[in-house]
């Protein structure tokens, strides 16, 4: 699979702290490239000033990539995903590659902006409309979190989501264990995990059919 992920910050030119946001984006892309080194075909890098692009091998890491961007950038962004072939040689520099997957990704991004959706997917992927719908519901839920809930939930997620981490999270954020469970409930975090499990099963099924 050639999966091109292209993103763009929402209304970036109107941001009061644009320089800081761009620096946060750079840091996010560095973390993505380091974390998913084995699953990245072409490194994620900034394109067009306020956008970013990279190429990955597997769809099942898309959610984790999104969470890193969600945490680090702290500003809404659109995503366009294109899945298909390429018409040039591979390169670690995403700007040196071209082909249908890139065209799909660019078209998806423009459509996401036009329709005000968090993500649009185009290309060679079964049930992509259903997958796209689930992801938009998940991302809409995430962007509804308050800053404190976001901080707590990301800490919980990054620390493997065990009962022990519930206690550790309550200590770190100086609140009761019952309150952490309450935050997980009202933030619909368990539904997000359920969506991730379903999507992973679907991506695994499709990969096994190739």
What's the rounded overall pLDDT mean? Answer: 93
**Poorly predicted parts:** none
> Helix tally?
8
Radius of gyration: 17 Å
Q: What share of the residues does DSSP label as strand, in percent?
A: 15-25%
Number of strands: 5
Structural class by helix and strand composition:
alpha+beta
How can the largest sheet be summarized?
5 strands, mixed
Describe, in short, the structure shown.
The chain is α+β, with helices and mostly antiparallel strands. The chain has helices at residues 18-35, 62-73, 100-115, 128-142, 147-158, 163-172, 177-186, 189-208, and strands at 3-9, 40-47, 51-56, 77-83, 119-123.
Can you walk me through this structure?
- The chain is globular.
- By secondary structure, it is of the alpha+beta class.
- Strand 2 and strand 3 form a beta hairpin.
- The chain contains eight helices and five strands; from the N terminus they run βαββαβαβααααα.
- A five-stranded mixed sheet has the order 2-3-1-4-5.
- The protein has helices at 18-35, 62-73, 100-115, 128-142, 147-158, 163-172, 177-186, 189-208; strands at 3-9, 40-47, 51-56, 77-83, 119-123.
Short descriptors:
single chain; globular; 5-stranded mixed sheet; alpha+beta; 5 strands; 210 residues
Topology of this protein?
Blueprint: E1 3-9, H1 18-35, E2 40-47, E3 51-56, H2 62-73, E4 77-83, H3 100-115, E5 119-123, H4 128-142, H5 147-158, H6 163-172, H7 177-186, H8 189-208
Parallel strand pairs: 4-5
Antiparallel strand pairs: 1-3, 1-4, 2-3
Helix pairs in contact: 1-2, 4-8, 6-7
């Amino acid at each position: 699979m050639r999966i091109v992920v292209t993103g763009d910050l929402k209304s970036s030119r109107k941001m009061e702290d644009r320089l800081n946001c761009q620096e946060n984006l750079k840091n996010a892309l560095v973390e993505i490239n380091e974390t998913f080194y084995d699953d990245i075909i072409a490194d994620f890098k900034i394109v067009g000033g306020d956008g970013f692009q990279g190429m990955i091998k597997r769809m099942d890491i898309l959610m984790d990539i999104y969470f890193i961007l969600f945490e680090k950038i702290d500003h809404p962004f659109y995503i366009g995903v294109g899945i298909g072939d390429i018409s040039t040689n591979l390169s670690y520099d995403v700007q040196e590659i071209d082909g249908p997957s890139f065209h799909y990704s660019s078209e998806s991004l423009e459509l996401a902006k036009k329709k005000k959706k968090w993500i649009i997917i185009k290309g060679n992927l079964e049930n992509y409309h259903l997958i796209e719908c689930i992801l938009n519901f998940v991302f809409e839920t995430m962007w509804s979190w308050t800053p404190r809930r976001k901080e707590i939930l990301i800490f919980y997620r990054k620390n493997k989501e065990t009962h022990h981490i519930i206690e550790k999270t309550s200590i770190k954020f100086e609140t009761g264990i019952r309150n952490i469970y309450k935050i997980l409930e009202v933030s619909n975090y368990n539904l997000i995990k359920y969506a991730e499990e379903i999507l992973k099963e679907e991506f695994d099924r499709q990969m096994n059919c190739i």
